[in-house]
Amino acid sequence: MAGSSLMKSRFESFICDANESVAIQLVCSDNELDNEPHNHAIKEFNPEFSHQLFGDNESIFGYSDLRVKLYYSSAKLNCFLSIGFTDKVTKDETNGIEADDVVDTIRQKLSLKLCSSMDEFRSLLSKESQFIPYGKLMDSFSIDWKTDEKQTKRHFEIYSADILVPGFDAYHQRMQTFLWWLIDAASYIDADDERWQYFVVYEKRSPNGLSNGHLHSDAHNTYCFVGYATVYRYYAYPQRIRPRISQFLVLPPFQKCGLGTRLLHTIYDFYVTDTAVFDITVEDPSDNFTRVRDFVDSKNCQKLNAFSVDKLKLGWNEDMATEAQTRLKINKRQARRVYEILRFRCTDRSNADEYKAFRLGVKQRLNAPNQKQILDYQKLEKLKKFPEQELAFIRQTTIPALEVRLDLLDKQYKELEEEYQHIVERLAES
Ligand SMILES: CC(C)(COP(=O)(O)OP(=O)(O)OC[C@H]1O[C@@H](n2cnc3c(N)ncnc32)[C@H](O)[C@@H]1OP(=O)(O)O)[C@@H](O)C(=O)NCCC(=O)NCCS
């Protein structure tokens, strides 16, 4: 191999995938820090994203076999960061380029005081059992937890708090550090703003580890942070509010067990009886969240009069929007989506006419923006103010050709049908 290729390949061997090199672990007690596998330890997890810390390539330069471990105490969320590697580049071999300062990058982004040593972290772990969740208990429930080996019952609690609860501000600063690793375009909120409401999920565990159906009196149990959501009370003219769900997170070791669904139910319960609330919206929902929301909203709406099977078959009407908004605080756009999900569920797809009527209804909605552009263009044409050349340009740039439009509609429809089918299946299982 020529000298420069050798250099290049040595150089490349010092580039690590940040999402693989970083691992995050919640620790309930200090014996989980020993090298022995611990039965009840919460599984460590890798970030989904790290581009906001390590750049678009999500890579860290300068180390071989890099292992960065971010420990959180499970209740109080005290933090310790450890870093290990088998080799690190020297400035001499890279013409002065230094290895990335991983610890500093993480420390700065998280804006968090980290424990200075593992001993300090361990000593703080002994105080974990003193932790009492902030705010008001909103929900308390058990889940049958299935793993490959066994099934256990685990206990969870959801609390609601705001920034006026003493101590919660500092706690929120620690909770929000998870966002960088699990949400694509994360950002910290302005927590000084009192219009934020927080909902926090914990697992409640017995002193020996898992909750496992045998909790002690409260003094002996410990809490483990599971996830949280933030909701902003937007003002709606003239005297209503429109709470908007902004951040919504369940940590990976607890995902796909129904906790996100439960958290969303809790948020709805919190606002649904408040007469000042007009409806609840969601900021920039991810696909995973959209599925949870579709499921919860469809499950709730199916009980409403306006969404009875007879009415669904007559097509979308404003009563659906009104009842979903007044009874469940669901906004109109989402109510329309729920209508389509529930109508799809009761559509006999072996009946060609019935199936076609459903498809047409969805495609008409999808096509509405195109229709508007065509009408706007026709208005321009009627004005007779523009020369044909200009009109042709407007037509070409704003209205796609019929064939293109039909193809796109078909594709959009198929994707939607798949999403609806998924929700219908989940509804059938629930
Ligand atoms: C979106 C998010 C909050 C969902 O939380 P969650 O706790 O996994 O949600 P649930 O468990 O209620 O539902 C998720 C899935 O688990 C499935 N599930 C629920 N209980 C289950 C069980 N006992 N066994 C197997 N699967 C189950 C649900 O059917 C659902 O499946 P689907 O995604 O295929 O539709 C979580 O994935 C997350 O935090 N993601 C990263 C951050 C993010 O995207 N946040 C949203 C920003 S708007």
TrEMBL record:
InterPro entries, sorted: Acyl_CoA_acyltransferase, GNAT_dom, HAT1_C, Hat1_N, Hat1_N_sf, Hist_AcTrfase_B-typ_cat-su, Hist_AcTrfase_HAT1_C
Location of the protein in the cell: Nucleus
Region annotation (Interaction with histone H4 N-terminus) ranges: 56-58, 232-234
Annotated site, Interaction with histone H4 N-terminus, chain positions: W196
Active site: E283 (proton donor/acceptor)
GO BP annotation list: DNA repair; subtelomeric heterochromatin formation
Family annotation (SUPFAM superfamilies): Acyl-CoA N-acyltransferases (Nat)
A GO term for molecular function: histone binding
Reaction equations catalysed: L-lysyl-[protein] + acetyl-CoA = N(6)-acetyl-L-lysyl-[protein] + CoA + H(+)
Coiled coil: 399-426
Signal sequence extent: none
All residue ranges annotated as the N-acetyltransferase domain in the record: 211-274
Top-level EC class as recorded in UniProt: transferase
Record family assignment: Belongs to the HAT1 family.
Binding-site residues for acetyl-CoA, renumbered to this chain: Q255, K256, C257, G258, L259, G260, T261
One Gene Ontology CC term in the entry: nucleus
The protein's name: Histone acetyltransferase type B catalytic subunit
UniProt domain Histone acetyl transferase HAT1 N-terminal: residue ranges: 14-184
Keyword tags: Acyltransferase, Coiled coil, DNA damage, DNA repair, Nucleus, Transferase
Top-rank taxon: Eukaryota
Sequence ranges assigned to domain Histone acetyltransferase type B catalytic subunit C-terminal in this UniProt record: 293-344
Protein source organism: Oppiella nova
